[in-house]
Input
Amino acid sequence: MDRNLLLAVVLSMAVYVGWFAYMERVAPKPAVPAAGAPAAGAVAPHEGGVVPSAPPKAPERLLDLTAPQAAVGFNPNGASIGSYRFQGPLGLVELVPAPAPGTFSTWPGLAFKPAAARWPHSSAFEAKHPDGFMVRKEFRFGARGELNLLRVEFKNPERKPLDVPAWEVNLGPGLGTVASEQADNLSTMRAIALFPPAEGKKQPRLEVIDEDDKPRDWKWLAIDNRYFMLAAFPDRRDFSTYQRVTGADKTPGIKLTASPERLAPGAVSGHDIPFYLGPKDYPVFQEMKQGLEKAIDFGWFDSIGRGLLWVMRYLKNLTGNYGWAIILLTVALQTLLFPLTLKSIQSASTMRKLQPELTKLQQKYAKDPTRLNQEMMALYRARGANPMGGCLPMLLQLPVFVALFNALRNAWELHGSPWIGWIHDLSAQDPYYVLPVIMGGVMFVQNKVMMVPSADPMQAKMMQFMPLIFVFMFLKFPSGLVLYWLTSSLINAAVQLALTDRGPDLQGGAK
Output
């Protein structure tokens, strides 16, 4: 048996199967409420970062506002955002899982009343605190690429000074997502923060907020999932601490605590909290220059993923479609890899020529594995053969494959992007499994063309079943990723078929 070739096959399978297992790791998937429905048992966090036993009072009705990018509903109890229905490419998406307590809630037991708004696309609410001061909250919503604003004001209507105790603003808990991501939403949801660069470093640091985080400086605090983000930019001079809190359904949230203050008679004190609520749109984030793009996860090969996304956006502008952009990207990559592909074909051709001699060696030294390996290596050196040569192009594509997987899974601009016919979303799996099946057929043809004859029946069966293994691996992959691999396989198959008939020209250094 050709042990080196078998080792190459096994290692290749191990790399891909192991990588697939990592990418498709399944965390516990609790039931997630449907968009717009209250999360079961969702409750407001309190001082200790835990949740009280009684749920907050749900509003009798939400007070609606049509903002530039969403339909917003406000919960009068705490003057929070109880609904944020964003219009995505696949329909409306409810980003606030439960109207009670809602997000940006302050004093959720305090009933606010609508007040006159000062800005376009804004809603204002007022209430009198039991300690005598007035609380005014106004939400202003900007257009695409602009931050929204929450302004909280305190006014002392009395003739004596009044103390405003430490007060809290809650982000979340929880963040909604598209229907196709509901099952994975809890496992992808995070409470995160962007901190200034560490000493001696230039880049700010993105960190997941743990329960025991200590007060420190920040650029922004956020809750995010695969496609959406709720980020706040509280002024460090107004807010002394932040803390991660957890809802009853284990969804993360963040509690901001503002310092107490004293209001002189007739005085007004204002606190601004810029915020973003919407999709993780990479180009928009770059234009905003707030560092929000650092929340988009491109995985192990971050730089490659961001570069591929830039190239795909450029090609999409040329073709008008991300599907054709992926095909053009694949053609460009295969062109760059052609010298290695040619060496791979030459290596396979040489191995086919050597197979009769290898079979004789296997029969001659069947009882002496050490001597067999020595003789086989000597034969490889004499003929300039490399059993691992055929794996090199595949291994070099692995970083591109992983980076493209993360780009297709996490880049908002690819979400809901159609190609042709039945492919309505390149970030989702092929609903009819057409592309994976065609890909398996192309790989089967490739194996027939490139198969090195083997005296080992087990090795031959492994190679025959390889296309079937890949089909099952790719069934639930994003259809854009399958399109990339299918295009790559078609190009390689065409090159192999075109060059296989050239006979001695493919033997390279073999004699």
In short: Residues 338-364 form the longest helix (27 residues).
